[in-house]
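Please fill in the sequence for the structure shown.

STRUCTURE ENCODING:
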């Protein structure tokens, strides 16, 4: 799919709320995992294979769903285009929904520019510390397997009770950090190099200065 429209790709970080500052009709809007909660209607919902069913939208508010079956093929295609030899293209490009979804956008939508919101990886340090001490629990393992009537979101709220929320919808887990800060930074650096080779410019529209996201900054008001 070739398009003259640029893409805004939203994650779960608080900066995703800035999407309300733009006319969404002027962009292709992609949302990862819980980002569906931001919209009445948007274009592409990209979610991980282990995204909890109870956290999915009860009523479809997206035009097209992109699951692992779709974006799982993209990594191999991009590595072939870039002549990258690897036994595991998905891990080479970055094995999180951010990297997997972003490479799907690059490969399938082929925009000239992609703006990022909510992907600063700026997790609350207090939460990260407790999460690591607790064995890095996530919705697909610990929180899903507990017995009881609470939803996964309620269990997250209990686990992180009293701590500042770092997702626009409430408490989530800093799951991408399971790969380690240094590993994530390497994947970002690869992304910057490879996206340029593929003719796609990626900028971070978030004003957040902390976290892990070395992409060039641009004001969301100026993004075209």
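FILLED IN BY: designer on duty
SEQUENCE:
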């Amino acid at each position: 799919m070739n398009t003259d429209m640029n893409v805004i790709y939203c994650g779960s970080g608080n900066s995703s709320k800035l999407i309300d500052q733009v006319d969404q009709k002027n962009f292709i809007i992609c949302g990862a995992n819980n980002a569906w909660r931001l919209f009445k209607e948007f274009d592409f919902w990209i979610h991980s294979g282990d995204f909890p069913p109870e956290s999915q939208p009860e009523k479809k508010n997206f035009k097209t769903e992109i699951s692992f079956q779709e974006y799982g093929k993209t990594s191999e295609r991009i590595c072939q285009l870039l002549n990258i030899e690897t036994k595991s293209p998905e891990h080479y490009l970055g094995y999180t929904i951010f990297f997997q979804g972003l490479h799907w956008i690059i490969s399938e939508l082929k925009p000239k520019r992609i703006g990022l919101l909510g992907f600063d990886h700026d997790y609350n340090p207090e939460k990260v510390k407790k999460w690591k001490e607790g064995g890095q629990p996530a919705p697909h393992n610990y929180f899903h397997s507990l017995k009881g009537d609470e939803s996964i979101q309620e269990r997250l709220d209990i686990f992180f009770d009293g701590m500042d929320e770092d997702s626009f919808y409430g408490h989530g887990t800093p799951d991408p950090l399971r790969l380690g800060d240094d590993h994530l930074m390497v994947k970002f650096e690869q992304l910057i190099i490879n996206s340029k080779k593929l003719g796609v410019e990626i900028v971070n529209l978030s004003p957040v200065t902390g976290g892990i996201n070395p992409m060039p900054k641009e004001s969301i008001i100026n993004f075209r």
